[in-house]
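So, is this right?
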Amino acid sequence: MAGARGLRPARALSGMRAWRPRAGWVVAGLLGLLATAALLGDNGLLRLWELRRTVTTLHREVQQLEAENERLSLSIDRLREDPSVVEQIARERLGLVRPGERVLRFPAAPAPREEEGAPGPAVPRARP
């Protein structure tokens, strides 16, 4: 009788065998849906990776803008405190001069022409 305890009727076993594959497929399907949602959902891993790349890009842009802001702040301080910087800008950009100074202006050199008949420097040609 000791061996009889572990035995079950054939009907019960056939019913369990029919149920187990169905339950396994249901569980596998649910796990597949959960994995898909975890990867592709609104708050999934792909979205998380995209947001991390965006944050990294924004951090770089912030660092560049902070460096430019510092450069511009130094330039503003130089303009406020150093009159020679203002004078240099007035001379270069506005063409201003001090009283008694003379300005010499030279005409710009004409651009070289690439046309066949345009006059140019005399270059001796080799004789055939």
About this structure: The helical segments are 10-40, 45-81, 83-94. Residues 44-99 form one domain.
